[in-house]
Amino acid sequence: xxxxxxxxxxxxxxxxxxxxxxxxxxxxxxxxxxxxxxxxxxxxxxxxxxxxxxxxxxxxxxxxxxxxxxxxxxxxxxxxxxxxxxxxxxxxxxxxxxxxxxxxxxxxxxxxxxxxxxxxxxxxxxxxxxxxxxxxxxxxxxxxxxxxx
Length: 149
Prior knowledge:
Helices cover 41% and strands 19% of the residues. A hairpin with a 4-residue loop joins strand 3 and strand 4. The protein is built from five helices and five strands, in the order H-H-E-E-E-E-H-E-H-H. It has one domain: Aspartate Aminotransferase, domain 1, CATH 3.90.1150.200. Strands 1-2-3-4-5 form a five-stranded antiparallel β-sheet.
């Protein structure tokens, strides 16, 4: 599934074959247990998203909730999108320490099976940035981008 039209997380999960649903559900459980208070789970851009709600921070460049993380079952792999990957070297070290191969794009962890992820490290990373800190990082990035323009 490249992108879903599901309106709820439950609908999204029900669209998945049982085996893929089990993987997404297990990662989702880790994210939900680790997610700092103030983020909200929902659907966005065809995947499960974890965002700062617009009522808490409406000043985004695209008028969409500020995305902290997202989870998706893509066609040939799963993806965990992390806007909090400012700790890239730490994450690389954690994958190496766990003996796992890191497959990462700019902010996307790709994995083919649940065992490809060091779930304790994912939990620590997700838990590491409360919404106020994430908003401050976002605002600094926007200021820097504006200064370069």
